[in-house]
Amino acid sequence: MPTDTRPTKRSGTKEKILKVSTTLFSQLGYKGTSVRKIASEVGIRESAIYNHYKNKEEIFLEVAKGIFSSPFSLSSDEIKELATKGKPFLQKFALQHKMLTFDKMNENMFRLLMIELMQNRELRVQFQAEFHEKNIKVLSEGLFIMMQNSLVRSGDPMMVSYEFLSTLFYIRLQITLMHFDDLSTNSLSTHFEKHVDFFWESIKV
Fold first, then answer.
1. pLDDT 10s per residue in the chain (205 long)?
2. Measured on CA atoms in the order 151, 156, 161, 164, is the torsion positive or negative?
3. 127 and 95 in one domain?
4. What does the DSSP 8-state code read for residue 128?
């Protein structure tokens, strides 16, 4: 847990609240994390938390947004440039999902969010917007460029994106579930790359 409770500038307090909250949520779960605990770890009074967030749920949703957001943080121009190379676009996309999957804190939060999704409507809305829609948008944009450049067969780029993303999500979920039961995931460590190879062979011209 964070131990550095030195005062921070007001402009950085919100960022520190999120950083500390991510750690606490991943370690203690939603119910086990209180606003008082967050404030204590940040090094501020509990009342000061409410200058930035109205309650614990709002903090949790903000943390979740960071976990759900597409890891593919490239500009449209960068996506266009990479997509014209074809397979490397898919490889980079899959690699970033793999890195998140095997990041311990991210995995703990992902596990927690899967549980809370069934109980929190706002979180479900956020999941659709931050994970599903943004990832599909990025993939669709890249695949459309590939189709225009005759690198892959023509079709509905959105449906092709669904096919590519769904397997990545399943691999991530499978690894998370296996880690939860302390099972080895060595056999799955190359599944992201294998998925890209298999998928590319099925769509390339």
1. 443 434 334 458 898 999 899 889 888 888 899 999 999 999 999 999 999 999 999 999 988 887 776 666 677 888 889 999 999 999 999 998 899 899 887 888 888 888 888 888 988 998 888 888 889 999 999 999 999 999 999 999 999 999 999 999 999 999 999 988 999 999 999 999 999 999 999 999 9
2. negative
3. yes
4. I
Q: How many domains is the chain built from? A: 2
Range of the domain at 19: 10-59
90 and 183 part of one domain: yes
pTM for the model stands at 0.78
Q: Are 203 and 152 in contact (CB under 8 A)?
A: yes
d(CA 112, CA 71): 19
Residue 2 lies in a domain: no
Which tokens hold the place of 102?
A: 């095997």
